[in-house]
Design brief:
It is built from 16 helices and 6 strands. By secondary structure, it is mostly helical. It is elongated and about 135 Å long. α4 crosses α8 and α14 packs across α15. Among the domains are: 50 residues, no CATH class; 71 residues, no CATH class; 194 residues, no CATH class. Keywords: Membrane, Transmembrane, Transmembrane helix.
Length: 479
C-alpha cells in the first residue's frame, strides 16, 4: 500500500498536479478534475457557455460556407447560360447561300423599306430559319454532264486508236506472244485456242473461254460463249500480270478512259497466255500419230472403292506437260485414261452423298481432277475415245443436282470456304458431264484453291501434290 501511494505521488509530480475546473451551468456548477493537465496548458474554456455567445460562434463559422456555396451556384448558372446561348446560335448549313438583297438595289419609295427587309433577313438568320440551298436547273446540269461525257469518250477513243496503231506490229498474231519456239506452232490444242477470236469481232468477244466441240469432228477450243460468262469473276488477269487496279479518285476524264482501254488490252493479253498454264495446257500430237482406240470392255469392272487415283493423276500430269506426243506417249495416255475412268466411276457410284462440305470438297475435288484429265484426252483423241459406247453411263454416275448452303457457327471461315468451293465443283462437274471443259480461268482458279489454299482439305494439301504447286509457282515466276 505504501509503495502504491509513493508511485502515485511520483506520477503526479511527473505529469503535474491535477487541476479542478469549474464550469458554470444554468443551475449547478460542474467540477471536472483533469489529473494529467498542468497549468502550462492554460485554462479550459467551456463551449457550453452563454447562449448568445454560442449563436455568434455559429454565425461566424457558417458565413464562409454560405459564401462558398453561393459562389459555386452562381458559377454553375453562368456556365449554363453560356452553354445555352452557344447552342441557340444558328449554324448555317454547308452549301446554303445567305439571303441578302442586292447591294445596288433601292426601292423607288424610300430606302427605309430596304433597311427593314435587310433587318428581317438578319432576324431570320439569327433565329435559325435557313432556306434550302439553291439548286441548279436540271437542264443546265444535264447539258454539262453530257458535254463532259462526250469529251471524255472522244479523248478515250483517240487514245485507244493510237495504242492500236502503235501496237499493230507487236500484236500481229497470238503466236508471237504465246509460243516461245517454232515447235509449238504445230500444237493443235493451242492453235485452236483462238480460232474464233477474229470471227467474233463483230459480236460479243468477252472473256473467258469455253472449250466446245465443233461439227464435223473439228475441235474449237477457246470459242467465246456467253453461257459461261458467270465464271468471269474468278479470273484475275491483272494480278497475274503484276498490274494492280488503281483506286485513285483523281483518275477522271480522259485518263480514266485511257486506263480502261489499257486494262482491256492487258486482259486479252493474259487471256492469250491462259492455255500455257500447266493446269490447263494441252500438248500437241505429232503428225501421223494415232493412238490405239479406247477399250470400253476395261471400264466398269472394279468392285473396290478404296483404290487411289493419285497414280493416274501423276502419270497424266507428266504426259500433258510434254510439248508433243509421240505414239508411245499417246498410248500411255489411253492406258491411264482407261484405268482412271474405271476407278472414278466405281468410287462415285458407290459413294453416298456427302452432307458436310469439307468431306464433299475432298470427294468432289477428286472427281474434278479425274474428269478434267478425261475431257482433255477427249479433246486430243475424240475419235479414238469411242464416246458413244461408254460416256453416257459414265457421266450419269456423277450427281450434281444438289448444293450446299449456310456457313455454320463453328469455324465459319473454313466452313464458308468449303461450302463455296463445293458448289463451284458441282457446277464445273456438270459442264464436264456434257463432254466440254469449263472456262480456263475457272479451272485454274479451282486447282489453285485445291492445291495452294491453306483451307483446302486433305489429301490436296499433302506432299504428293507438291508437283502441282511447283508448276503454278514456276508459271507465275516465269511471267
Amino acid at each position: 500500500m505504501v509503495a502504491s501511494t509513493a508511485a502515485h505521488k511520483e506520477q503526479r509530480q511527473q505529469w503535474g498536479d491535477a487541476q479542478d475546473y469549474r464550469v458554470l451551468g444554468d443551475d449547478k456548477t460542474t467540477v471536472f478534475s483533469l489529473p494529467h493537465l498542468s497549468l502550462a496548458h492554460g485554462p479550459l474554456r467551456s463551449t457550453s457557455g452563454h447562449p448568445q455567445r454560442r449563436f455568434q460562434d455559429r454565425r461566424r463559422n457558417s458565413l464562409p460556407r454560405f459564401l462558398a456555396a453561393t459562389a459555386l451556384i452562381l458559377s454553375i448558372l453562368v456556365i449554363g447560360v453560356i452553354c445555352k446561348a452557344a447552342r441557340e446560335v444558328p449554324q448555317r448549313q454547308p452549301g446554303s447561300t445567305p439571303r441578302r438583297l442586292a447591294s445596288g438595289w433601292l426601292p423607288d419609295e424610300s430606302a427605309e423599306l430596304c433597311q427593314i427587309a435587310e433587318h428581317c433577313l438578319e432576324l431570320e438568320a439569327d433565329m435559325g430559319i435557313a432556306q434550302p440551298p439553291a439548286q441548279a436547273t436540271a437542264g443546265a446540269e444535264s447539258a454539262s454532264m453530257i458535254e463532259s461525257l462526250v469529251a471524255m469518250l472522244q479523248e478515250a477513243a483517240e487514245a485507244h486508236e493510237q495504242q492500236r496503231t502503235e501496237g499493230t506490229e507487236c500484236l500481229s498474231g497470238p503466236q508471237v506472244i504465246m509460243y516461245p519456239s517454232s515447235e509449238d506452232s504445230a500444237n493443235p490444242a493451242l492453235n485452236g485456242s483462238f480460232a474464233n477470236l477474229s470471227d467474233n469481232e463483230g459480236g460479243s468477244s468477252s472473256f473467258p473461254y469455253s472449250l466446245t466441240h465443233a461439227e464435223g469432228g473439228e475441235y474449237v477450243k477457246g470459242s467465246l460463249q456467253r453461257e459461261h460468262s458467270g465464271f468471269l469473276h474468278t479470273a484475275t488477269p491483272t494480278g497475274a500480270m503484276g498490274m494492280e487496279p488503281r483506286a485513285d479518285s483523281s483518275l477522271t476524264g480522259p485518263s480514266l478512259g485511257t486506263q480502261q482501254f489499257l486494262y482491256l488490252d492487258m486482259v486479252f493479253l493474259e487471256a492469250w497466255r491462259l492455255p500455257m498454264h500447266p493446269f490447263v495446257r494441252l500438248p500437241s500430237v505429232e503428225a501421223g500419230v494415232s493412238p490405239r482406240k479406247l477399250r470400253p470392255s476395261r471400264l466398269f469392272l472394279h468392285q473396290r472403292t478404296n483404290v487411289s487415283a493419285y497414280a493416274y493423276f501423276s502419270t497424266l500430269r507428266e504426259l500433258f506437260l510434254r510439248r508433243s506426243l509421240d505414239k508411245g506417249s499417246a498410248d500411255a495416255i489411253m492406258d491411264a485414261i482407261e484405268d482412271l475412268a474405271d476407278v472414278a466411276w466405281t468410287q462415285t457410284s458407290c459413294r453416298a452423298r456427302q452432307i458436310r462440305p469439307a468431306l464433299a470438297v475432298s470427294a468432289l475435288g477428286r472427281d474434278f481432277l479425274a474428269l478434267d484429265f478425261i475431257v482433255c484426252a477427249i479433246q486430243l483423241f475424240r475419235d479414238e475415245m469411242r464416246l458413244h459406247m461408254w460416256w453416257e453411263k459414265f457421266a450419269s454416275a456423277f450427281r450434281t443436282n444438289y448444293s450446299f448452303k449456310g456457313s455454320g457457327l463453328r469455324r465459319p471461315r473454313l466452313r464458308n470456304f468449303n461450302t463455296q468451293l463445293a458448289n463451284r465443283l458441282l457446277r464445273v462437274i456438270d459442264i464436264y458431264k456434257q463432254g466440254n471443259r469449263p472456262p480456263l480461268p475457272e479451272v485454274i482458279e479451282i486447282k489453285r484453291l485445291l492445291f495452294c489454299s491453306p483451307l483446302a482439305p486433305k489429301p490436296f494439301t499433302d506432299s504428293p501434290y507438291n508437283p502441282w504447286r511447283n508448276d503454278d509457282q514456276a508459271f507465275l515466276e516465269g511471267q
